[in-house]
Amino acid sequence: MKWPNTLTFMRHGESNYNILKEKKEKDILYQKFKKLYETDFQSNETRALAEYVKKEYSLGVSDPNTPLTPAGKFQSLKTGEELKKIIPLPHIMYVSPYTRTKETLACLRESWPELKNI
Q1: What does the pLDDT read at residue 1?
Q2: 104 to each of 55, 67, 71, 80, how far by Cα in Å?
Q3: Angle between helix 44-56 and helix 28-39 axes, rounded to 10 deg
Q4: Crossing angle of helices 70-86 and 99-111, rounded to 10°
Q5: CB-based contacts of 16: which residues, under 8 Å, 6+ apart?
Q6: DSSP codes, 25-37
Q7: What percent of the chain has pLDDT over 70?
Q8: In this structure, what are the phi and psi dihedrals at residue 47, rounded to the nearest 5 degrees?
Q9: Residue 9 phi/psi, 5° resolution?
Q10: How buried is 107 (Cβ within 10 angstroms: 0-12 exposed, 13-18 middle, 19+ buried)?
């Protein structure tokens, strides 16, 4: 078995969850919910705050179906442009079935067309 000369690992572009997480971490009510949940997760106040968090911070899709943001698509296009300059064309690529990773791959292939058959 031949060992690879190069391994390249890459994370997906910015997803809608990344943006939501930043917003959530700045929210005073979310911070209060986190503290209350650690000490008294069954109180009425904790439950009320949990409803607020659920309503305010739900993407409406499951984690595997979370898409990229427009910025994430741009990042992925730029990454493909830059990677094709510095690494050889891969022989194989492994990509998770998550929406954001498949969208990242589509953008990579758009900016690095030689990847289309990999």
Answers
A1: 66
A2: 28, 9, 11, 9
A3: 140
A4: 50
A5: 59, 66, 67, 68, 69
A6: HH-HHHHHHHHHH
A7: 99
A8: -65, -40
A9: -110, 140
A10: buried
